[in-house]
């Protein structure tokens, strides 16, 4: 991208630009039947990488299936699935280096799995037990792992966007050859943090990959009620950064786009925006009922664009997997996840004293006073806090 000063063509009559003035193509490599488009340029991928990608997708599907069921049974309080968006999440994560930092929104647990988060670690977080890396302080699916360079999820929307700019800028100042990738939905792009984060990244030349999962809805609000512009990609161009729109259900297209986005970000120390056009097949969360704002016919249409099935067919065509292999993998993970649930839900929650640890270098008198008052309150009403009362 040129850093030359802006030059303006001179005209002598009023001539406005509109959203149709910017042509934004969409990258597609893989067709629904598992074959590639004619003349398509494939990403760097071999059998081992393909198998790891597919393994991650299957595990994530099983995890979503089992844990949504667990929430309905009252075993955990909350859950969010990434069903239908696996290609966007896994395909992009597979293009990264292990030392690249991931700043996720809340639907990217597949990227954490790809990096090596164990089944037990997932369960410990969701059940907030004493083995949870977050010490039971976060609601389910708000993961974090320093070891895997996956920053802890925040519930407030879009907070990770300017943070990602700072993380990548900091790594650049340290001379590291790594990027930060920031995931967010198109709904988060309506927040002020989106605009501040992207502008800051472009001006400071922060090697950040901004990855927008445009899945059609911000909870129940469709895209046409969120913005009037040409999607999110047009905003990247407006902020002066390399931008691409990709079929978010096409694993190979997402992988290729992210591989090249990373290379460009590192070579030029600049941000890149990727807009992945995808669809959330499940509800926004376990607290949502999508039947109130979209039709069964719409969902059925998108089921035909299932990203995991499309990638599987490509692997079948390559001779890298069989239908029997897939069935065994699903069954193995169903057993593994169910077994891990039974163990994690029986482990005790963290001791109450730990609630003020790691907040500051040393707990302040005010924190100690609050802890004392909390213990007194729980001791007074033990039946209202059965788990905590047993850990005083």
Structural summary, described in words:
The chain has 392 residues and is of the alpha/beta class. The protein contains 13 helices and nine strands. The chain has a seven-stranded parallel beta sheet, with helices on both faces. Strands 6-7 form a two-stranded antiparallel sheet. A hairpin with a 2-residue loop joins strand 6 and strand 7. The longest helix has 26 residues. It is globular, with a radius of gyration of 23 Å. The model has no long low-confidence stretch (mean pLDDT 95).
Describe the secondary-structure layout.
Layout: E1 26-27, H1 47-72, H2 86-93, E2 101-103, H3 109-115, H4 119-126, E3 150-151, H5 160-173, E4 180-185, H6 192-204, E5 208-214, E6 217-218, E7 221-222, H7 233-238, E8 242-247, H8 251-268, E9 272-277, H9 296-303, H10 307-318, H11 323-344, H12 365-380, H13 386-389
Parallel strand pairs: 1-8, 2-3, 2-4, 4-5, 5-9, 8-9
Antiparallel strand pairs: 6-7
The biggest beta sheet is recorded as: 7 strands, parallel
- Within the largest sheet, what's the order of strands? 1-8-9-5-4-2-3
N/C terminus separation: 59 Å
Residues in β-strands, percent: 5-15%
Q: Helical proportion? A: 40-55%
Poorly predicted ranges: none
Mean pLDDT: 95
| Total strand segments | 9
Topology order in helix (H) and strand (E) letters: EHHEHHEHEHEEEHEHEHHHHH
Helix-strand category: alpha/beta
Radius of gyration: 23 Å
The number of helices is 13
The outline comes out as globular
């Amino acid at each position: 991208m040129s850093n030359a000063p802006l030059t303006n063509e001179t005209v002598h009559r009023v001539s406005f630009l509109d959203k149709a003035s910017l042509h934004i193509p969409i990258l597609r490599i893989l067709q629904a039947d598992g074959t590639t488009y004619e003349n398509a340029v494939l990403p760097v991928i071999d059998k081992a990488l393909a198998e790891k990608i597919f393994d991650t997708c299957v595990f994530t599907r099983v995890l979503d299936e089992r844990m949504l069921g667990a929430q309905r049974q009252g075993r955990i309080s909350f859950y969010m699935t990434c069903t239908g968006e696996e290609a966007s999440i896994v395909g992009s994560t597979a293009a990264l280096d292990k030392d690249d930092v991931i700043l996720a929104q809340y639907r990217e647990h597949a990227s954490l799995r790809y990096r090596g988060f164990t089944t037990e670690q997932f369960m410990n977080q969701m059940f907030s037990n004493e083995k949870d890396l977050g010490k039971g302080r976060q609601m389910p699916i708000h993961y974090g792992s320093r070891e895997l360079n996956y920053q802890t999820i925040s519930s407030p929307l879009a907070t990770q966007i300017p943070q990602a700019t700072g993380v990548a800028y900091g790594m650049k100042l340290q001379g590291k050859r790594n990027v930060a990738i920031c995931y967010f939905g198109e709904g988060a792009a309506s927040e002020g943090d989106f605009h501040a984060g992207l502008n800051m990244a472009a001006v400071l030349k922060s090697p950040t990959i901004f990855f927008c999962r445009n899945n059609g809805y911000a909870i129940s609000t469709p895209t046409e009620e969120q913005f009037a512009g040409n999607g999110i990609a047009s905003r990247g161009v407006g902020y002066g950064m390399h931008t691409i729109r990709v079929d978010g259900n096409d694993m190979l297209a997402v992988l290729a786009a992210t591989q090249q986005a990373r290379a460009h970000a590192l070579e030029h120390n600049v941000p890149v925006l990727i807009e992945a056009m995808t669809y959330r097949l499940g509800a926004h969360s376990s607290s949502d009922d999508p039947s109130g704002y979209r039709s069964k016919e719409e969902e059925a249409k998108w089921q035909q664009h299932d990203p995991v099935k499309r990638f599987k067919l490509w692997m079948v065509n390559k001779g890298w997997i069989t239908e029997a292999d897939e069935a065994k993998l699903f069954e193995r993970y169903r057993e593994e996840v169910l077994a891990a649930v039974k163990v994690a839900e029986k482990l005790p929650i963290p001791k109450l004293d730990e609630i003020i640890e790691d907040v500051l270098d040393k707990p302040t008198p005010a924190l100690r006073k609050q802890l004392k008052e909390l213990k007194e309150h729980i001791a007074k009403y033990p039946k209202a806090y059965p788990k905590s009362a047993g850990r005083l």
